[in-house]
Amino acid sequence: MKVDTQTGIVGLLIAQGLKKVYHVRSTSLNLPPVTIDHENGWGLPLLKHCFTEERYSQIHTAAVDPYYEPEDPGRMPTYNGATGELIKDIPLLRMYRVSRRRFRTFCAEGIDVQYGKSLNNISYSNDGKMVKANFEDNTSATGSLLVGADGTHSPTRHQIFINDKEKATAKLVPYNAINLHVCYGDVAKAQHVRQGHPIMYHGIHPKGYWQFIAIQDVPDPDKPETWVFQLQTTWKKTTEPDLADEDVASLEKHWKRAEGMGEPFKSANLWIPEGTKVSVNKMAYWVPEKWDTRGGRVILAGDAGHPMTFQRGQGLNHGIADAAYLIQLLKSVKEGNKAQDVAIEEYMNELVERAGEEVRTSIVNTDMLHDWGRFTNSPIFTAGGHASQTNKIALEAQRHKEELLKAEEESKS
Ligand SMILES: Cc1cc2nc3c(=O)[nH]c(=O)nc-3n(C[C@H](O)[C@H](O)[C@H](O)COP(=O)(O)OP(=O)(O)OC[C@H]3O[C@@H](n4cnc5c(N)ncnc54)[C@H](O)[C@@H]3O)c2cc1C
């Protein structure tokens, strides 16, 4: 079997799930490289649909700190970004924060990844059964289902809405976002920066900054000088009206910004060594809407289907939910319990409802976190990292987990 996806983590998860359903030794897809980190909250139990039990039990090896046993339930401390005073521990589920690079490697095991394939266009057979991805290098791949898991600016989405470019295009939000990795190479500095929480914490600054610090890599838990951190700062463009776009990544300007932060944010940012690479994220969103699946032959998954702003940390969780639900539906198709066009229609309807709500919520959340007068009403502040009550996939997984725990307890007594 060949899987015609072009993808990051979500495509890989779907490929893994298909391997499980179809019992094949290898599936193939296209995959270029990137690095950032993610928290895996309510998505964690859903990964069982994608991996074998043995592989699922090894997920912690992709965590940013594989030596750290996550708290259950988790929490994310929220600080006043200007004074460093703790405002609230936001409730989270038990979660692993994974490094995107490491999680991709984990997910790619056993998948035949074909690098360097870029989608040019899609064609469909007249009999309503097959779909063909045509790549820019004049090669193509044909199958019964094309999974467009090709990220925020998804070429597959643009092909699906080929007659309406405006409809297909992800919209930018008016925020600046910088992201960087830093190893302080110093025991005391690393311990100071990690004091906010062993995994991640954030600060809300009264002047309109969102400040985020997370551990990124722990090669040796007893050697803080080796620890790598991820620092992010976001702010509304109007907060610094004189800042030219080409200066968003300026470290000098960021050091000045850091002067107004409270500890440990202030030192964490002032200690960034000169020459550190600062990445700029152009935050964009697309509210999913129903598309023509061409009789169940083309779908969107992950950021291709629901790119969202990241301060609520939900993008990958929804990508995992897409993969988990798709795998369950394709299993029914394989077992002859459902026709493919029906299964794919169900997949699309569920995605549009669940992830559409999250895309909207995340935009509101981003706006509120940058507004001192409103941040305590923001979705992350009020609902934490929990899945929404309309998220049937996550709630089902949670119920299943509770049932298992109850059965385990009963068998002990
Ligand atoms: C700063 C930041 C922090 C985040 N934090 C969190 C978090 O804490 N928790 C969370 O759940 N989510 C988080 N997210 C969101 C998360 O990163 C994404 O939702 C997730 O990685 C999306 O995975 P994906 O596989 O759908 O897309 P991607 O990882 O974008 O993969 C898409 C792939 O398609 C490829 N592609 C693109 N165009 C083509 C083409 N023409 N042909 C072939 N291939 C193509 C790309 O190269 C890429 O490899 C964060 C995002 C950002 C930016």
From TrEMBL:
- Every FAD-binding domain range: 110-355
Pfam families listed in its UniProt record: FAD_binding_3 (PF01494)
Q: Keywords assigned by UniProt?
A: FAD, Flavoprotein, Monooxygenase, Oxidoreductase
What InterPro entries does the database record attribute to this sequence? FAD-bd, FAD/NAD-bd_sf
Record keyword Protease present: no
Alphabetized Gene3D superfamilies for the sequence: FAD/NAD(P)-binding domain
* Chain ranges passing through the membrane: none
List, separated by semicolons, the cofactors it needs: FAD
| Superkingdom, natural source | Eukaryota
Q: What is this protein called?
A: FAD-binding domain-containing protein
